[in-house]
Structure prediction request, 782 residues.
Amino acid sequence: MRNPLSSTRFMQGLFESDYVRSLVVGTVSVFGLLGLLGLLFPDSVAGDLARIVFSTSTATSTARLAAPIVLAGLGGIFAEKSGVINIGLEGLLIISAFVSVYAASVVGIGSAVLGVPAVAVGFLAGIAASTLLSAVFAVVCIEFKADQIIAGLAVWLIALGLAPFMSTVFFGGVNTPNLGSDATIGWGTSATLVILATAGSWWLLNRTAFGKHLRAAGENPKALDTVGVSVSKVRYAGVLLSGFLSGIGGSALALSIGQFVGAGETMVQGKGFIAIVAYLFGNYNPLGTLGAGALFAGLDAMQIRLQQLGYAVPDTLVQTIPYVMVIVVLTLVGRTQIPEAAGEHYETEE
Amino acid sequence: MSDPDADRTTSVLARLVGPFVDRTVAERLVISVAAILLSIAVGFGIVLVSGRIAECSTAAWTMPLTGIGFCYDPVEVYVVLFNGALGYPFAVGEPGLFNAGWTPLNLSFGLTLSETTLLIFTGLSVAVAFRAGLFNIGTQGQLVVGGLATALSILALAPLLPAGPVAGVVLVVVGTAAGAVAGGLWGAIPGALKAYADANEVITTIMLNFVAANVAYVLVLEVFRAEGSSVVATEYVPEYAQLRPWLFPTSSDFALVALLIGVGFIGALYYFVEHTSLGYDLRTSGVQAAAAEYGGVNAKLTTVRAMTLSGALGGVGGAVWVLMSEGRWLASIPDLGFDGITVSILAGNNPIGVLPAAFLFGVLKGGALEIGFRTDVPTQLVAVLRGLIILFVAMPEFFRMIGRYAGLGGGGVARPAEPDETAGGEGGEADA
Prediction:
C-alpha cells in the first residue's frame, strides 16, 4: 500500500493543500512587512513592534507559551481525527499543570527518586494525571456514549474545581508556592519538546498504519470495522494520546515558572481552547498547528513586552489581544474539514 | 364503568402532568437525581483521599473497622453543606430531630435563595441556547457586560429623577432593560459569527468571556471607578433603586421580589419555547437544523435570535446581581455563568426544570459558605461537584446500563440507590 518516500510526496504531505500554502505565504509576508516597516521607520510604533517581534526575549517567551497551545493542539488532532471531539483540552492542561508542581514539591527540589530529579518526576506525574483524566473522558464518551461536547466541558470544569481544591488542601491557597529557579525548565526544553512532538505527530498521522486507522475511525468507522480493526480501540488511543500530549504541555507551562496559579481561570487561561483554534487554523496538520500555536503564543509574548514598554494602553486591554485574535481567526477559517463521523458514536455491528 | 366525567378529569390531569411523567422526562429526572447522588459519592471519596494526604494533628474522622484516620470528616462536610444551606433546621448531635428555634427566614437560607435567584437567570440563559442546539458558554461574559450596563445606566439616570420609590421602580426597570440589551448584544456577536461565518460558538463565547472581563475591568478602572474605593468597582446605585431584602435578614442580600421575577421569567420562557412559533423554530433548529431549514425556518436568523435572547437573559442575571447582591458593579464576579451551565444541563434544558435545579445548586453554593465557616475542607469542593454533575448527566447510557443490570429493564430507569454502590470504584479511579 505504502509508496516509497519520494521527495515530491513528502512535499505534498507537507503542503497538502492551497490552504496551508497560503497560510505560510501570508505569515512570511506579514513578518517581512513588519521587518521592513521597522527598518524604515525605527521611531514609530512599527519600529517598536518590529524590535519586540524580532527580540530574543520575545522569542524565548514565545517558545515557553507555545508549548501548552501546540502540544494540546496536537493532542486535539489525534482525538478529533479518531472521531472524538475533545473540548476538554483546557482541563487536561490545568490538571497536569497542578500535578506537575505538586509532585515536584512532594519529592522536594534537589532530591531525586531512583535517580530521577524532582522536576522530571513532576513532569511525568503531570503527564500521568492528564492521561488519566483523558482516560475517564474516553470511557465516558466511548463506553457510555456521552455527548462529547458536554463531557468535554465537564472535564474542563472538574479540573477547574479540582486543581484549586487540591492546591488549597496541600498548600493552603489556590496558588502553590513558587518552587524556585532550580525547579524550572528552560525555554529550550519547551521548544525541543514542541518540535519533537510536532514531528512525531506528523509521522504518526501520515506515515504509519495507526495514522490510517485513526483517520478511518473518524471518517468512515464502518470501513475500519469491516477490515477487522476495532473502532473503539483506535478511538481510545486517539483520546489517550490527546491526554498524553496535553500533559506534556501543561507540565511544561507550570514548570517553566515553577508554580501553579489557580486563581480565576487558573494560569492556563484558555490556552486549551486556543489550542483547538490552533489546530482548526492549521487544518488538522501538525505543522500548521505548530505555526498557529506559535502565532498565538507570539501575540501573547508580544503583549507582555508591550506592557513593559509602557504604552498608555492599560495592561488588561493589551492582554485581550490574543483572545480577540483567536475569534478573528476562527471567523476567517470557519468550519474546516471536520472528520465525517466526529462527534458520533459508533455501534459495532456483529 | 367509565363515567365520562371521570374520564375527562383523568385526561385533563394527564395533560397537566403529562410533561412530567412522560417517559423521557421521567428518565431525565431519574438520571439527574442519580447524577447528583453519584457526584456526591465521588465527592465523598475526594474529601476522604485529600483528608488522607493533608496534614493535621488530630484526625477528624476515623474509618470504621480499619482505624485509619482522616483529616476531613466527609459525613460532616455533607451535613454542614445541606443542613447549613437551610440554616440548620435539623438538630445534629442534640436530642430531637429539629432545631426548635429554626425559622425559614434565617440568614443562611436567605443566602441560598439569593444564589438560587441568580442561577435561575443564568440557567435560563444557557437553557434557551441549548434548546436551539447552541452551547452558550458565554453567559458569564454576558452577565459581566449586562451588570455593568445596569450599574452605569442607573448611575447616569439617578440624578435626573427625584429620589423616592417611584424613581426606584423606574430606575430598576430601566437598569434591567439596559442590562438585557447589553447582554443581548454581547450574546449576538457569537450568534452572528456562528450563523454567518460558521465559527464554533463554544470557542467564541469562551474567548468573549475573557474579553468581557478584561474590557469591563479596564472601563471601570480607568473611567467609572468610585472615588476612594480600594477595589475596582463603580459607585453604589442609590439604595431606593436596589432590590432590598424583604422578610429575610439584610445581610442575606436576598430580595423575594427578585425570586418572584425569576419564577415569572421561567413561566414566560416555558410559554415562549413550547407555545409560540418562534419558540418552535428555535426547538426544531436545535433538534434537526437541516429539516428546520427545509421547513422554511431561517436557521441563521434563528441562531442569532437564540443567542441574543440567551445573552439578554444573562444580562438580566447581571442586573439582578448588581441590584440585589452587590448594589454596584464589582470586578470580582462569581462564577454564575458557569454554574448556569450545570443548572441548565441538570434541568434537561427545560425552563420548568431550571427552578429545582437552580434551588439545588443554590443549596450547594449556600452550603459552601457554611463549609468555609465550619470545616477545614476547601470550598472549591462545590466547583468539583459542579463538574462531576455535568459529567454524569452527560452519560445517560451509564445509568441505563446499570438499570439493565439491576433488572429494571423496561423504562431503562436506574434506581438512584444503585449508582451509589458503584461510586466507590469510580471515585477511586477519578482520584488516583
Summary: The mean pLDDT of chain A is 82. Chain A touches chain B through 50 residues (CB under 8 Å). The radius of gyration of chain A is 21 Å. The CA atoms of residues 147 and 322 of chain A lie 29 Å apart.
